[in-house]
Structures are given as C-alpha cells and as structure tokens.
Amino acid sequence: MKTTRWHSCNVLRxxxxxxxxxxxxxxxxxxxxxxxxxxxxxxxxxxRLITKDWRTLWRRKLNIAWLPTEQVFLRVVHLPKCxxxxxxxxxxxxxxxxxxxxxxxIVWSLEIVPGSSGELQTVIVIVAERSLVEDFxxxxxxxGYLADRLELPFLxxxxxxxxDGDGVWIYLQPAEARTLCLxxxxxxxxLQRVNLLNLPAGEAGASVFGAxxxxxxxxxxxxxxxxxxxxxxxxAEQAVASVWESALRQWANEPIELVPPxxxxxxxxxxxxxxxxxxxxANLLPAEFSTRYQQQFIxxxxxxxxxxxxxxxxxxxxxxxxxxxxxxxxxxxxxxxVAALSGAYTNAxxxxxxxxxxxxxxxxxxxxLDCWKVASELxxxxxxxxxxxxxxxxxxxxRGNAHDEDxxxxxxxxEAMSKA
Length: 420
Hints:
The chain is of the alpha/beta class. The protein has two domains: 8-285, no CATH class; 379-419, no CATH class. It has helices at residues 47-50, 84-93, 95-98, 130-142, 153-160, 202-223, 238-252, 264-276, 287-378, 407-419, and strands at 8-14, 18-25, 32-40, 61-66, 72-80, 106-112, 120-129, 149-151, 167-174, 178-187, 190-200, 232-235, 256-259, 384-391, 395-401. The strands form four sheets. Strands 3-2-1-4-8 form a five-stranded mixed sheet, covered by helices on one side. Strands 11-10-9-12-13 form a five-stranded mixed sheet, covered by helices on one side. The longest helix has 92 residues, at 287-378. The protein starts with 7 loop residues before the first strand and ends with a helix.
C-alpha cells in the first residue's frame, strides 16, 4: 500500500485549562521540532501552523489530536494472521462482545501488536463512545483545528516499549483529581490483557487499583494465560511512583521495577514519528468527518482560487481603465496641439498656394517673352505681325498682314514656329 510522505505534522493535546501544540518536520521519516506552544484557554490556536492551504498540495501537513484517554476502552484479541481488510472484518464480527456500548453508538479502530509469532496475531481494539468523540471534534473545529487523525498517546508508548520478558507494565498519567492507569499484561511473549482505568488520585487510587488487579489476575488464572506470578514494572514519574510503589509492593509481595516515562514532548515526537513512518494504524476519527474535512479543504481551495482570479481580473480591469485614461489624455493633448497648430498650418498652405500661383505667373511671363522672342526672330521680313496673344501657357495666337504672293512665307513661318 502506498504511503504518504508528510512534510510536517502537528500534534495537539487538549487539557482542562490549556492546550499544547507541537509542530514537527517529518522529512525522510525523521522528526524534528519546529514549534511548540502552550495556550491557556480561550487563547486561539495559531492558524499559520494548523491551517491547510494550497501549499499543502505538495507540502503535505498532518494534523493529529490526542483523544482524552478517560473516554476510551481497550480490548485485546488474538486472531489468525490475515490481510488488513480481512482483519477489520473479523474484529467487526466480535464488536458486540468487545464493546461496552451498542455497535451503532461507538467509534472503533484497531492496532496490531508487533512481534506476534505463530499462526495468531495480537490485536488491540480501541473503542470510544461516538457522542463523546463527536463532541470533542466539535470543540476542535470551533478552535480551527481539523484533525486528520485521532489517537491515544498511551498506545504509542505501549507499542514501543521494549519487552524483555513476561510481566505487568503499569503506565501512570496523574492529573489533579484523577489518575489514568494503563496496565499491560505480557505472558508467554504475548500481550494478553490491556486495561485502561480512571482512578482516584494518590493513595486512594493505588488501593482501588490493587482491587482491580486482583480481578484481572483471577481472570487470567481462569483463562489459563497467567500461570506464575508476573514481574512488575511501574512507568511513572518519581513523585507519583513513590506513592504507588509501596501500595503495589504491599499487594503483590514482589519487587517493583521503576521505569522512567516518556515526557509529554517526547511522546508527541513519538506520535509524529510513527505517523510519518505509517506505523500507527489506529485512528478514531470517523470516516464521515474525514470526508467532510477533505471536501472543505477542496472547497476552500476553489473559493480562494476563484477569489484570486477575481482579484487578478479586477486588477487587470483597473490597469486597462488606467491605461485607457492615460491614452485618452495623451490623445486629447495631441488634439489640442493640432487645434492650436491648425490656424498656422492653414495660413502656411494659403501662402504656399499664393507663392505657387505667383511662380506660375512669373514662369508664364518668361514663357511669353521667350515665345515673343522666337516669333520675332522667325518672322520673315515680308510679313507684318500686328498682335501676339499667349494664353493658358500652351496656346499662342498670332495676327498680322501679308501680300497674297507671300502666302508660302506664312506656311514656312507656321512650320518654323511649330518646330521651335
């Protein structure tokens, strides 16, 4: 199955009075902390860190939220090894037995425990009441955080704890009034039982937990997977472990091995790392929420794209109108210059025409004189010229007197004038 390469991963922890947000870079399946913020309610979450935009199309961003652990139930089942799709169907057939609520009122997921040997595989089934999950997601949505995954931080620590033998691992998460306790029973190299308990704080919680351990141990003996006293490991901070260790030692009559827990930032980094490597399969986010968030993201991209196009269009129209105004101004300026020069231009044309007419008149005068000179030079002595008329620059009319016997002279004169 193709895995998604994430560019960054946000992990959100919602507390009673504050929220913690971590952002990790997840290149090459390794994580490095980019930002960490603790926000006291009702301070808003930083939108620049959690909001997805068009850049996330190639710089993929994963939003993970930790579901409050007190709202979750864990069950362990052992099933034949099979394909993931078949495994989900096999678990679904047992939901009525595994879930404390009706199947139509829950959200559930599963996680395969690594290291299973033989023909069976160990599966942790996570069940949460749907109404609580939807209410939690509604609070995240009101804060602007659209989660891609809804996970349990305890589960990451449980699945990554090195198991060096059979025993009981007890993980404690103290709060002001309650203590969350996760107990994992390993027998025969296999995880047999997981219990997530919401107990009173302090010594009262340790006493109640002892009674619950009695019930689990009796059930293990009856089912046959607890045949010998287990080793005990307590994963808790020193201040909490000092209270619980004495109560557990008194109940178990066995030494209690103390194991330092992961810090909350380290657990957030582990969550991001397992998500970047596609190791974490359990996701309590309902499918309809994931589909709706994806559609909202696509719609938001479309709306922002259309808004961007509208802005570009308006900007282009403004540029066009501005350029048109400038060109109109320049054209009007040129027209004003033309109008200012039109009078002088008309006068210049009139003067040019007058000069041309005068030049033609001068040329005609000289042409008439030339014609008169030629006519005088070619006129025979026997003929008398009485009038000379030069018109239209190309017509000459000569009048004169001659005797009848001089008619040949007239003909010769005409021919000479025609050739001149």
